[in-house]
Amino acid sequence: MNRTQDLGKLIKLTGDRAKLDAKANDTYIVYKTREGTIVKEYSNGDIVRMNDQDFQHE
Q1: Count of CB atoms within 10 A of residue 58's CB?
Q2: What is the share, in percent, of the chain residues with pLDDT greater than 90?
Q3: Which of 3, 19, 23, 42 could be a cystine partner for 46, CB 3.0 to 4.6 Å?
Q4: Where are the alpha helices (DSSP H) in the chain?
Q5: What is the C-alpha separation between 33 and 36, in angstroms, rounded?
Q6: Torsion sign, CA atoms 37, 30, 28, 45
Q7: Predicted pLDDT of residue 58
Q8: So which domain of life are we looking at (predicted)?
Q9: Closest Cα to residue 31, out of 49, 45, 57, 46?
Q10: Distance between CA 39 and CA 31 in Å, rounded?
């Protein structure tokens, strides 16, 4: 395998681990889709699109 394939595999495994941790802790993961949208994915499979207000700190 080359480095690009190794890196791709590592990224996939990291995402899979994050999903397992979210399920175990009854929380969600946040990631950017291929289309560039940032979403929250809950452990039950619900996916919620985040908007600019979600990124504001108070």
Answers
A1: 2
A2: 76
A3: 42
A4: 3-24
A5: 5
A6: positive
A7: 58
A8: Bacteria
A9: 49
A10: 6
Distance from the first to the final alpha carbon of the chain: 46
Q: Which two tokens stand for residue 12?
A: 């996939």
pTM of the shown model? 0.72
Residue carrying the six token digits 């994050």: 18
Say which residue the tokens 């397992």 belong to: 20
Q: Is the dihedral of CA 25, 27, 31, 34 positive or negative?
A: positive
Q: Is the pLDDT of residue 9 over 70?
A: yes
Distance CA 48, CA 11 (A): 22
Q: What would the two tokens of residue 36 be?
A: 């560039």
